[in-house]
Design goal:
The complex is a heterodimer of chains A (119) and B (116).
Chain A: E1 4-7, E2 10-13, E3 19-25, E4 31-37, E5 43-50, E6 53-56, E7 64-70, E8 73-78, E9 87-94, E10 109-110, E11 114-118
Parallel strand pairs in A: 2-11
Antiparallel strand pairs in A: 1-3, 3-8, 4-5, 4-9, 5-6, 7-8, 9-10, 9-11
Chain B: E1 4-5, E2 10-14, E3 19-25, E4 32-38, E5 45-51, E6 56-59, E7 62-67, E8 72-77, E9 86-93, E10 105-106, E11 110-115
Parallel strand pairs in B: 2-11
Antiparallel strand pairs in B: 1-3, 3-8, 4-5, 4-9, 6-7, 7-8, 9-10, 9-11
Classes of the chains: A mainly beta (119), B mainly beta (116).
């Protein structure tokens, strides 16, 4: 009964390949996200998806594309993988995209991460 | 530009003692602060938060203190237990249109080890 599940857990692939990471949440949340944790341990948002509205972090290369077939799923497709794409990718969801001032009532629920290694 | 900094990558504390994890930020527009906890091979989970209208928020063994003038917050865990061993991430968000989960800025985390 995992709340936010992502697959695969580990992904090893060669440069230039195209790969996908899948994410599903059974919490009934309206918003889903992809985060990247790089080798320096920075946890940075890549995308958020809320009611068909996609918000993209402008620093993310267009080789990365999120695809949301429905509210419970947000998959991440990566084309032409590069060495620098090696990282841990976390999917997350929250009930709302925003929260009211002075009340954090919509915390993020993260999946367990996908460790991507590009060789 | 690292707007949220956790300068101690690791911390070891004896079981039963107080654990103090620190976080500094540089953006004066940040108005809401969070702590997330992460176990190995799992995703982060929300722990506690504090807004700028408060200087302290307590939840059981966990207390977060905010010093806005110093742009500093800290997480106190008393008493520390072995199950508290994890990586703790500090995060911050702004106000108005910047008040959203997609606007959270995370620190790099502090690995806390509780020694039995």
């Amino acid at each position: 009964d995992t709340a936010v599940s992502q697959t695969p857990k580990y992904l090893v692939t060669q440069m230039g390949n195209d790969k996908s990471i899948k994410c599903e949440q059974n919490l009934g949340h309206d918003t889903m996200y992809w985060y990247k944790q790089d080798s320096k341990k920075f946890l940075k948002i890549m995308f958020s998806y809320n009611n068909k509205e996609l918000i993209i972090n402008e620093t993310v290369p267009n080789r990365f594309s999120p695809k949301s077939p429905d509210k419970a799923h947000l998959n991440l497709h990566i084309n032409s993988l590069e060495l620098g794409d090696s990282a841990v990718y976390f999917c997350a969801s929250s009930q709302e995209k925003s929260f009211p001032p002075f009340s954090y009532n919509s915390p993020l629920h993260f999946g367990n991460g996908t460790r991507l290694t590009v060789t | 530009d690292q707007q949220v900094k956790q300068n101690s990558p690791s911390l070891s504390v004896q079981e039963g003692r107080i654990s103090i994890l620190n976080c500094d930020y540089t953006n004066s527009m940040f108005d809401y602060f969070l702590w997330y906890k992460k176990y190995p091979a799992e995703g982060p989970t929300f722990l506690i938060s504090i807004s700028s209208i408060k200087d302290k928020n307590e939840d059981g063994r966990f207390t977060v203190f905010l010093n806005k003038s110093a742009k500093h917050l800290s997480l106190h865990i008393v008493p520390s237990q072995p199950g508290d061993s994890a990586v703790y991430f500090c995060a911050a968000s702004g106000v108005g249109t910047n008040f959203g989960n997609e606007k959270l800025t995370f620190g790099t985390g502090t690995r806390l080890t509780i020694i039995p």
